[in-house]
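Structure catalogue
Derive tokens from sequence
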Amino acid sequence: MTQAPKSARPGRPALDTVLERFERWARDTPDAPALLAGPDGLTYAELDARANRLAHHLLEAGLPAHPLVAVATTLGPDLPIAVLAVLKADGTYALLDTGDPHTAQSLLAALRPDLLLTHTPHHARLDGGDGPRTLLLDAESARIAERPADPPARPAPDTAPPPNGSVAGPPAAVLFTGSAAPRQVRIGHARLLAALEGWAEIARLTPEDRHLFTCGPDVTAFAAGWTRALCSGGALVLPRDPVRQAEDPRRHAEDLLRTITTQRVSVLHTDPAGALALLPDPDRAPLPAQSRHEDGPGTGPLRLVAVTGDRLHLDEQSAVQAALRPGARVLNVYGLTECAGNGTWFELPQLPRPLDDPERLSLLGTPHPGCRADVRDGEIHLTPPGGGDAVPTGDLGRLRADGLLEFGGRVRDRFDLAGRPVDPHPLEAVIRSHPRIGAAIVAAVPSGKGENRLVAYVAPPHGDPPRSPGTTLPETWELRAHLAEKVPAGLVPRAVIRLRTLPRTRGGQEDRARVPQPPLLLAPTPPGYGRRPGATKYGGANTGQGSLSCAVGCGALAIGLVARLVTNLLWPGSTDLTGIPLHWAVLFGLLHALECVAFGLGVMFLFNGRRRMLAQRRGRRVTTAAHLAVVYLLVSWWPQDNLYRLAAKQDWARQATLVYVFNVPLMIAAGILAFYVTRRPTSPFDFDD
């Protein structure tokens, strides 16, 4: 199955480069803002002049032709200056994230560049003494400032796309995949430009746009996506010292909203966690009105949110869309490093009709202009913009009847359970259908008995109270009951591990390797505790557990009343109080009523008590026995007391029958209950079958 947009033009030769696009804007709009970094910023003319000075220095540094230059600096003005200077010097750039020195060191060792551009503090953490030749930007700033600001002479790059999709001539960039072991991908000038043109057509980029990227500099979204801002005449917003999502999710959200407000960002490139930060939060002040409802001179409000890096479910996309002003767009972008971040895109107007179960779906939509999407044996293949061979993504998908591509999970996430392969994505989608779960990962965890047990790691929806993390999440018994009729019995998780948020990689993907091993269960809490009344994932109505307790109490009273009414039909004369003094008659009447209520409680506990007792994790068999013992202790008083009152004192046969029918089982039930209470809870991976 294949998708291809009408505007796909494979093999179309590029007429220029992204560098020439930038320089054209620098000539035509020299005073327009290019970089916005806090109170500081650079115009297009200033950015071009600084890049020219650094390019002169690189050309005179004695580097080989078409040098490979690694750029390792913070996400500030020096980063785009260095990237543009490398391109002006006819070199190839590769970006390293100084916020993750360990990963940057391994990438630098594998890259083996001709030159490292960095600052002194970062150089001390990256270079072990035998690294590449280094240019310290802070130490050389005075010398670079003396260089001319005119553009350096350089040969024009070969921009014709190769027939087989490989890089023709010197590449423009080296991008790194977001996998656990990053892989180098060389991207040519033609592909980088084709990716920009595809984005410009879909996002309708304008010179008035202000672009903000929430990912690290080495992630493909930024390493190839900076062109969307600086090659379309827009401004690139560079926040100072941004808080990383992995370090503090709540501060990351606050920092993101603050930057959007102060810099009046109109186009946001982020991952699912960043997109969900736009949702209203009861414990955080909303966006100021000027950032959402007022237009300022030369800028606009947030009009486009492009979400990439990981799966974005349809209910999440719809919630983010509803949180923005009318007319704003939310794109779910499925990109590939070999495609320079392009691939497919989806927004809600592409739906031909409403869909059921949006929490189970992640729609990838249709291809970017110049790209093509194929589904071969269930695996998605993407053809890069500008042509070339189709690249297998390692992700599963299907082409729906409505023409939209649907995400189906990742091949690398598969695992074996009881000798059969399991695709976790469909199961995780069903788990997300629980109203109090916002994100889920399932994994096969060793149980210590030579076999794996299925464990679900769940996180609450956006807006969960931060002071009581995870208390709104369901217990194991609740989730198992929710899944009982929706998935095969062998795929029902044996335990639920409740987390505040799921860990994510630097690229924004859920990091399955960083979930707790072995996981620890949080202490059981009353169902529904800590959640706003009537709240669901994104603010809708929800039936709370308080209503369940009320229903149980009302049901017990109703059954007790029925039992009181039929007592004389079953045991005539057992409640006759004739001849008994009034004060004793009142006590016996109250006793009869309590026996009936206890019977009603026992009946209700028979249907509602077992799954609550399973949350104690004391073993399935002993829990079943204890559950029945409690039921017997409650329901037996009503028939037992009535039969005793009708038995004569000297009727030894009847007295013995009543003792063995009622009293002996009461002793056995009490013993079972004592054993259950004193039994040590089992491991979450050692449930009885």
